Amino acid sequence: MSQISVPSHFDYRMEVHVQNADIRSATVVGGIFVSHVTYASLIPMVDKVFDGFLEHFSWSKSNIAGANIIVPKLEVDYRSEAREGERLDWQVAVTNLGRKSCDLIFFVTKIPEREEVATVKISLVFYDYKARKTLEIPKEFRERFSE
Fold first, then answer.
1. Coiled-coil annotation: which residues (predicted)?
2. Is residue 3 part of a domain?
3. CB of 135 within 8 A of CB of 69?
4. Which of 51, 98, 132, 140 has the fewest beta carbons closer than 10 A?
5. What is the pLDDT of residues 135-146, one digit of tens each?
6. CA-CA distance, 94 to 124, in Å (whole number)?
7. 87-135: per-residue pLDDT in tens?
8. Which residues lie below 8 Å from residue 84, measured CB to CB, with a gap of 6+?
């Protein structure tokens, strides 16, 4: 099992309140009832925070510093359950800047206790859909997040 490295510096922060629609409930083996955020609801949360990150820098998924992206990979390391009514602190860092790709690390903790909920990594590949080929990371993006 992989373990996602948590960076020491983050580029963006967003608070997300866990809503009833974000949780999944079930009775599991042994008759125990569980109700918490699962992979099915975590992915839309990642998408929401990613949108917030992009908007913070005046970008969108269809125009990141003049380029499009593909997200070919998503990894999640779960650490604890998040339940309805809890507040989650999402911190986002841009890491592993390559020639045509980079990673975004999302570090999720509960507010106020700072208990780690999950670490998420998505890989971004910059892409030209018209030419159907990968692109170099735009200069504006690279300069903003150079390590």
1. none
2. no
3. no
4. 132
5. 999 999 999 998
6. 10
7. 999 999 999 999 999 999 999 999 999 999 999 999 999 999 999 999 9
8. 18, 19, 20, 22, 23, 35
Residue 109, domain extent: 12-145
6 lies in some domain: no
What residues pair up with 93 in beta bridges, in sequence order? 105
- Domain annotation covers residue 107: yes
DSSP the chain: ---PPPPS--SEEEEEEPPGGGEEEEEETTTEEEEEE-HHHHHHHHHHHHHHHHHHTT-BTTBBTTBEEEEEEEEEEE-S---TT-EEEEEEEEE---SSEEEEEEEEEEETT--EEEEEEEEEEEEETTTTEE-PPPHHHHHHH--
pLDDT average, residue stretch 74-92: 96
CATH of the domain at 109: 3.10.129.10
For residue 26 the two structure tokens come to 């079930």
